[in-house]
């Protein structure tokens, strides 16, 4: 059965990937462009009904209310009328494997995990594939930047923020090696094992915790040496955690793990971000006191505990907001990321305002990753990275992204799905 499945993939699916055309990466902005008449969703909670955005050389040079500010249209080469449409900052997807994962059933197309359990020097950026057929599909839903995260082991490696357009990874990289990802070991003992295995479980937990603690303790000591005689690649990759230039992302969910991870980070002086954190509401005091943001992995999921309310994943973001905890919403993995806006939209139906939900996938991720001075909101001086959409971007029924810019470069939003749609509509004479 497995052989038949693989043969089917090779015969029928791979040709679609090989022969479908990826849009050519956009050229650098060469004309001064003005967008007028649309509703501006700034990204920080502010909305301007009749807005205007002007940009040149990849930067926003004008943003505001068209009824208030004076606009010299002659100063622009191109004027885009966005009347009746909505203008949003480009969405930012955190905790993804975009560009390093292509077809789940084919190991050769996956470049997520490395062998071994402690791999802090692994860099997702050099494995990033700009020719992925998944990326255009995600981009067409308004996601223009993504945090690409390695997986596997206890310490998976370093993530980078990538623009979803470019000829190669050097073109696409937006912020290189911005964080280190740790998969905190489960500290819960399974109740389904035999009694004689209980001690082995405890030994496993203690061993893995010791490995992590030793690595980061050694890295802190190593960071105090300005010019070591012999460089250690793994410890060099962790140096930024102790001078504030990198963030440590702890992937865990339950109370014991959250408390243990936060304790280690506080002890060693590392800036921590909690990824997942389904039990975060049980330790709100800890998270607020240490200013630990939470990356919500999924809104569209089942509750993590049998006794939780069925709508717990939907109300999670609202409860974090009420507790004063900064959060971002992610959609996890790779092709599923195209639904990022709709994950955030579900939170709107359960307590968040639309602008708060937008912030959770634009400005908040930018702040968590330290790129908020360049992107994440429609403000003068920031990158011209935004989308023009008809309908509500957070509503799967009405959202249609019509135009997108990354640093002023207008993108081709064509996808393999659109190509197939045109192909068969033409074949059967459908409009």
Q: Helix proportion of residues, in percent?
A: 25-40%
Oligomeric state of the chains present here: single chain
* Strand line-up in the sheet with most strands: 8-9-10-11-12-13-14-15
Low-confidence stretches: none
Count of helical stretches = 12
Query: What is the arithmetic mean of pLDDT?
Result: 92
| Class based on secondary structure composition and strand pairing | alpha/beta
The fraction of residues assigned to DSSP E strands is 15-25%
Globally, the shape reads globular
What does this structure look like?
This protein is α/β, with parallel strands linked by helices and 431 residues long. It is built from twelve helices and 18 strands. The longest helix is centred in the middle third of the chain and has 26 residues, at 198-223. The two termini are 40 Å apart.
Kindly list the characteristics that best describe this protein.
globular; alpha/beta; 431 residues; six-stranded mixed beta sheet
SSE inventory with pairings:
Layout: H1 2-19, E1 33-36, E2 39-41, E3 47-48, E4 51-56, E5 59-65, E6 78-81, E7 86-89, E8 91-96, H2 134-139, E9 143-148, E10 155-163, H3 169-172, E11 173-183, H4 198-223, H5 233-237, E12 247-252, H6 255-268, E13 272-276, H7 284-289, E14 294-296, H8 312-322, E15 327-329, H9 340-348, H10 354-359, H11 363-369, E16 386-390, E17 400-406, E18 409-410, H12 416-427
Parallel strand pairs: 1-6, 2-7, 8-9, 11-12, 12-13, 13-14, 14-15
Antiparallel strand pairs: 1-4, 2-3, 4-5, 7-16, 9-10, 10-11, 16-17, 17-18
């Amino acid at each position: 059965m497995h052989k038949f499945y693989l043969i089917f993939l090779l015969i029928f699916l791979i040709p679609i990937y090989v022969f479908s055309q990826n849009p050519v990466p956009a050229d650098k902005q060469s004309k001064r462009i003005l967008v007028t008449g649309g509703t501006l969703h700034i990204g920080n909670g502010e909305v301007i009904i009749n807005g205007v955005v002007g940009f040149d050389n990849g930067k926003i040079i004008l943003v505001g209310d068209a009824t208030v500010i004076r606009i010299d249209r002659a100063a622009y080469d191109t004027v885009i009328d966005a009347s009746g449409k909505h203008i949003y900052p480009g969405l930012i997807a955190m905790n993804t494997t975009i560009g390093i994962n292509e077809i789940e059933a084919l190991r050769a197309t996956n470049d997520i995990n490395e062998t071994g359990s402690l791999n802090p020097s692994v860099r997702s950026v050099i494995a990033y594939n700009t020719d992925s057929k998944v990326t255009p599909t995600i981009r067409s839903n308004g996601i223009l930047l993504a945090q690409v995260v390695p997986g596997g082991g206890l310490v998976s490696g370093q993530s980078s923020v990538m623009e979803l357009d470019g000829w190669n990874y050097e073109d696409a990289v937006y912020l290189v090696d911005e964080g280190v990802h740790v998969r905190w070991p489960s500290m819960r003992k399974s109740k389904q094992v035999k009694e004689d295995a209980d001690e082995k479980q405890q030994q496993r937990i203690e061993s893995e915790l010791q490995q992590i603690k030793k690595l980061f303790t050694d890295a802190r000591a190593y960071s105090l040496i300005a010019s070591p005689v012999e460089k250690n690649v793994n410890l060099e990759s962790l140096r930024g955690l102790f001078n504030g230039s990198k963030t440590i992302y702890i992937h865990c969910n339950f109370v014991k793990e959250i408390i243990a991870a936060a304790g280690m980070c506080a002890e060693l002086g590392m800036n921590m971000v909690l990824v997942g954190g389904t039990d975060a509401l049980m330790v709100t005091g800890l998270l607020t006191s240490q200013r630990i943001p939470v990356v919500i992995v999924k809104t569209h999921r089942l509750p993590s505990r049998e006794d939780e309310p069925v709508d717990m994943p939907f109300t999670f973001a609202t409860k974090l907001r009420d507790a004063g905890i900064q959060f971002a919403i992610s959609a996890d993995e790779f092709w599923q990321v195209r639904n990022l806006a709709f994950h955030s939209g579900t939170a709107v139906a359960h307590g968040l305002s639309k602008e708060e939900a937008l912030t959770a996938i634009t400005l908040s991720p930018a702040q968590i990753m330290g790129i908020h001075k360049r992107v994440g909101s429609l403000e003068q001086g920031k990158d011209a990275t935004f989308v023009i959409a008809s309908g509500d971007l957070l509503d799967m029924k009405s959202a249609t992204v019509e135009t997108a810019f990354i640093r002023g470069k207008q993108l081709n939003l064509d996808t393999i799905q659109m190509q197939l749609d045109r192909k068969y509509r033409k074949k059967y004479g459908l409009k």
